[in-house]
C-alpha cells in the first residue's frame, strides 16, 4: 500500500495557495501542516474546514487567538501522538526558538527538550515540527544557524522514522540524520509544497509548485 501525503508549512494567510492546496489534497490520503498558518482566526478556520484530513501544528507566527482555535481542533497534533496507516504514527510539536520579531510561539531550548522528551516517539514516528534541528536547513543571513539543538538531540536519541519541518523560508530539501529521513518544507506562501509517498517504510519526496 502506498500512502500519499501532502505536506506544507508557512502559508502565512496566502489565499491563492490555500485554494491550490485544497485541490491538490484531493489526490492525497493525508495532509500535514507544519505551522505559520495565520494571525487571522477566519483564515485558520477556513484551512481546517477545507482540509478535513489534515494534521496540524502551530508555528511561531500564529498568534494567541489562532493557537486557541488549533488547541480545540481534533486535527491538532501538537504534543500528541496519532496512529496512522502501515504501523506508523504521527507526533507533533510546533513553535520555534526565539526570533528577532517577538512572535507568540517561541520556546527556549529547555522548553523544546522538556516537551519532546515526554512524547512517545519511536522508529515508526513521523515527527511534525515547525523548527528545524540545528545544522539542517537552518542557515540564514551571515551564516547564522537558527535550528534547535534540543530537536537535534531528540532525533538522535529517539530515532524517529522521519522528521518534517518548515520555518526557514530560504531552504527546502531532504537529508538523512542517522536512520531518520529529514524533509525541509518550502514556504507555501511562495506557492510551494511537498508530495510524499511512503511504501514499506521507504519515502519518496517530490517538491511541487502550486
Strand content: 25-35%
- Number of contiguous helices: 5
Instruction: Tell me the Rg in angstroms.
Output: 15 Å
Dominant shape: globular
Which percent range fits the helix content? 10-25%
Can you summarize the main beta sheet? 6 strands, mixed
Task: Please provide a written account of the structure.
- This protein is of the alpha/beta class and 210 residues long.
- It has a single domain, classed as Purple Acid Phosphatase, chain A, domain 2 (4-Layer Sandwich).
- The chain has helices at residues 15-25, 41-50, 64-72, 109-117, 149-158; strands at 3-8, 30-34, 54-57, 81-83, 89-93, 125-129, 162-165, 173-177, 180-184, 192-199, 202-209.
- The strands form 2 sheets. The protein has a 6-stranded mixed sheet, covered by helices on one side.
- The longest helix has 11 residues, at 15-25.
- It is globular.
Quick structural gist:
By secondary structure, this protein is α/β, with parallel strands linked by helices. Helix content is 23%, strand content 28%.
What's the helix and strand layout?
Layout: E1 3-8, H1 15-25, E2 30-34, H2 41-50, E3 54-57, H3 64-72, E4 81-83, E5 89-93, H4 109-117, E6 125-129, H5 149-158, E7 162-165, E8 173-177, E9 180-184, E10 192-199, E11 202-209
Helix pairs in contact: 4-5
Main attributes?
about 210 residues, alpha/beta, Purple Acid Phosphatase, chain A, domain 2, six-stranded mixed beta sheet, five-stranded mixed beta sheet, 5 helices
Amino acid at each position: 500500500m502506498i500512502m500519499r501525503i501532502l505536506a506544507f508549512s508557512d502559508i502565512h494567510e496566502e489565499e491563492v495557495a490555500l485554494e491550490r492546496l485544497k485541490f491538490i489534497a484531493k489526490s492525497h490520503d493525508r495532509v500535514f501542516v507544519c505551522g505559520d498558518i495565520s494571525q487571522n482566526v477566519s483564515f485558520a478556520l477556513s484551512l481546517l474546514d477545507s482540509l478535513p484530513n489534515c494534521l496540524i501544528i502551530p508555528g511561531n507566527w500564529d498568534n494567541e487567538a489562532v493557537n486557541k482555535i488549533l488547541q480545540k481542533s481534533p486535527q491538532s497534533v501538537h504534543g500528541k501522538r496519532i496512529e496512522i496507516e502501515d504501523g506508523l504514527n504521527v507526533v507533533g510539536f510546533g513553535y520555534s526558538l526565539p526570533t528577532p520579531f517577538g512572535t507568540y510561539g517561541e520556546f527556549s531550548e529547555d522548553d523544546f527538550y522538556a516537551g519532546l522528551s515526554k512524547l512517545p516517539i519511536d522508529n515508526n514516528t513521523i515527527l511534525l515540527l515547525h523548527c528545524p534541528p540545528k545544522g539542517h536547513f537552518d542557515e540564514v543571513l551571515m551564516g547564522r544557524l537558527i535550528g534547535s539543538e534540543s530537536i537535534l538531540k531528540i532525533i538522535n536519541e529517539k530515532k524517529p522514522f522521519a522528521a518534517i519541518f518548515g520555518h526557514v523560508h530560504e531552504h527546502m530539501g531532504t537529508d538523512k540524520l542517522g536512520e531518520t529521513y529529514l524533509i525541509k518544507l518550502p514556504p507555501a506562501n511562495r506557492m510551494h509544497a511537498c508530495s510524499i509517498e511512503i511504501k514499506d517504510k521507504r519515502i519518496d519526496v517530490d517538491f511541487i509548485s502550486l
